[in-house]
Design goal:
about 230 residues, 7 helices, two-stranded antiparallel ribbon, Membrane-bound Lytic Murein Transglycosylase D, Chain A, mainly alpha, 4 strands, rod-shaped
Length: about 230
């Protein structure tokens, strides 16, 4: 074997040794950015060098730790939200209970309002009736002692409260008066004492204060004066 052939044989041996150590596939030149969701394919992973694989595995470990931390944070937030939601649900139930109770009261009051609004405002006197009997009727005042209000509201036709006649149409007042027409023999404390006014004779000063434009002396008022009855 001459010198040239020996040199060529040595080159082939060295080349075969390098191929056995390194392999035929080239190393992967790109770097996967795991934090951006970029990963090596299975084929790329097989062709990574040891250093590349170590770095890639370290990046995967870091990303896994980040994801686990985010998951734990999400779990805590979800737990807090669940607790807040439970509190809101309790508040809603409490408000619903209050609403139902208030609605029940309002409905009850509305029934009473409807009842009183539908009560008769006029009563036709029947044979054998007198003011106390009429006042005691359920649909009138349900109280025989309140008959004077019927009398006061019908003085245009009733001269003697002990004398009323069948067929008469008597007004049955239902509201709380905001004004008062003075009748004979009335004075401020007497008017204030009427149950439909204040039911308290000592409250006459309210009427006096509200009518100072026409009352100069509280001991002197005259029939047919129209007095304001203030309502607080």
């Amino acid at each position: 074997m001459n010198h040239k052939m020996l040199h060529r044989a040595l080159l082939l041996v060295v080349g075969a040794s390098l191929l056995a150590v390194v392999g035929c596939s080239p190393k992967v030149t790109r770097t996967a950015k795991v934090s951006d969701g970029d990963y090596y394919s299975a084929e790329e992973f097989k062709n990574l060098s040891r250093e590349q694989r170590d770095a890639y595995c370290a990046d995967l470990d870091d990303e896994l730790a980040t994801l686990n931390s985010a998951a734990e944070r999400s779990d805590r937030e979800a737990s807090d939200l669940s607790s807040d939601l439970s509190g809101v649900e309790r508040d809603v139930k409490a408000l619903q209970s209050k609403y139902d109770a208030a609605k029940g009261e309002v409905d009850g009051l509305q029934e009473q309002v409807d009842y009183f609004e539908n009560l008769p405002k006029v009563h036709v006197v029947e044979k054998g009736e007198f003011l106390q009997k009429i006042s005691a009727e359920e649909q009138v005042y349900a109280d025989r002692l309140k008959w004077p209000r019927i009398y006061r509201a019908n003085k245009d036709k009733i001269e003697d409260p002990n004398l009323i006649y069948p067929g008469w149409e008597l007004t049955i007042p239902r509201d709380w008066p905001h004004s008062w027409t003075v009748h004979q023999d009335e004075y401020l404390s007497r008017i204030a004492g009427y149950w439909e006014v204040y039911s308290d004779g000592t409250a006459w000063t309210k009427i006096y204060e509200a009518n100072k434009d026409q009352i100069s002396d509280p001991d002197m008022i005259w029939p047919d004066w129209e007095l304001v009855i203030p309502r607080d």
